[in-house]
Write a structure and sequence with these properties.
mainly alpha
Length: about 325
């Protein structure tokens, strides 16, 4: 039990460090990019006033105005008065940007204005992307037994053969993921965003959780949106949980393919027998000590590995 408690504490520590890392990135990005954004806003506003004050607009002035407006729009600064009320580099927006950076979603709705911000983005992502993958993997390992191995074992004990049991389980898991991470969030986005249709919400969820991130739909960009900071925080949690469940779904499909012989038929890499040990052993644990080996042997009957798993199922 002590080992299990220690692994859970380490996992919680990983997640807390991940949140702190996002906050650190948000503060740096906000510090670097906010002054540049304010400067660009001022330039666009001055240009707008000069344009309005001219009684007769020349072609050169019009082209210069449009060039500046389009360049500012690329960085999330709009010439329209009601569209520029919110900064793209306040703390909440900066943390949202950092989140999309390390999860590789990358909507592109806001990008660094300064060379310093671009350089920091490179180094921040170099550390943040692999660490995010590590945290996601550790979380998925914790979910494999309660959401995959135990339900398959239960279906087999109820009388189903191994192959039908794994297929039924995958369909049920797929239904829950679609319901909880696509349909319900899409309805919420439709309600909160106002201008989004239900199809737009489904489209955004799919593009985000597949880490495609086209950027044509980005939450929290409405002018004067209520509770914007809380809303962006909720979206970040949704993205993390959604990516975790997508990864779990892919792992489940891979293991089911092994049971059904699809990986052998298509000559794809199999989930090796050692993968069962990987699923049982938390990624955050250290190397085994003699004391741990003794404790592990004494508690084998309580380990998930003593139950039916995809790797121990007879393909029959």
């Amino acid at each position: 039990m002590a080992l299990v408690g220690r692994s859970w504490l380490l996992l919680i520590g990983f997640i807390l460090f991940y949140v702190i890392y996002l906050l650190f990135g948000a503060l740096i990005f906000s510090t670097i990019e906010r002054p540049m954004e304010d400067k660009l806003r001022l330039e666009v506003e001055v240009l707008k006033q000069e344009f309005l004050n001219q009684s007769c607009v020349s072609a050169a002035s019009l082209e210069n105005f449009l060039f500046k407006v389009l360049a500012a729009n690329k960085y999330g600064v709009f010439v329209l008065k009601n569209a520029s009320a919110t900064s793209n580099w306040d703390l909440a927006s900066s943390m949202f940007f950092a989140n999309t950076l390390v999860t590789t979603v990358g909507y592109g709705h806001s990008t660094p204005l300064s060379d310093t911000g671009k350089a920091f983005s490179i180094f921040y992502a170099l550390l943040g992307v692999p660490f995010t993958m590590l945290v996601l993997t550790a979380c998925v390992q914790r979910l494999l037994y309660p959401l995959v191995l135990a339900p398959v074992s239960l279906l087999q004990r109820s009388g189903l053969e191994p192959r039908p049991a794994t297929a039924v389980h995958f369909v049920l898991l797929l239904f829950l993921v679609v319901l909880c991470f696509f349909l319900v969030p899409a309805a919420i986005f439709t309600k909160v965003e106002g201008s989004w249709s239900f199809l737009d919400g489904i489209y955004f969820c799919f593009i985000s959780l597949c880490t495609i991130g086209l950027g044509d739909f980005v939450p929290g960009m409405q002018p004067e949106q209520k509770y914007r900071t809380l809303y962006l925080g909720a979206v970040m949690v949704y993205l993390f949980l959604g990516l975790m469940m997508m990864y779990l779904l892919l792992r489940t499909f891979h293991k089911m393919s092994d049971v059904h012989g699809l990986t052998t038929l298509l000559q794809l890499p199999r989930c090796e027998d050692s993968d069962a040990d990987e699923d049982r052993e938390p990624i955050v644990d250290h190397a085994e000590s003699p004391q741990r080996q003794t404790e592990k042997g004494a508690s084998n009957h309580l380990e998930p590995g003593s139950q039916v798993s995809y790797n121990t199922i007879n393909k029959g």
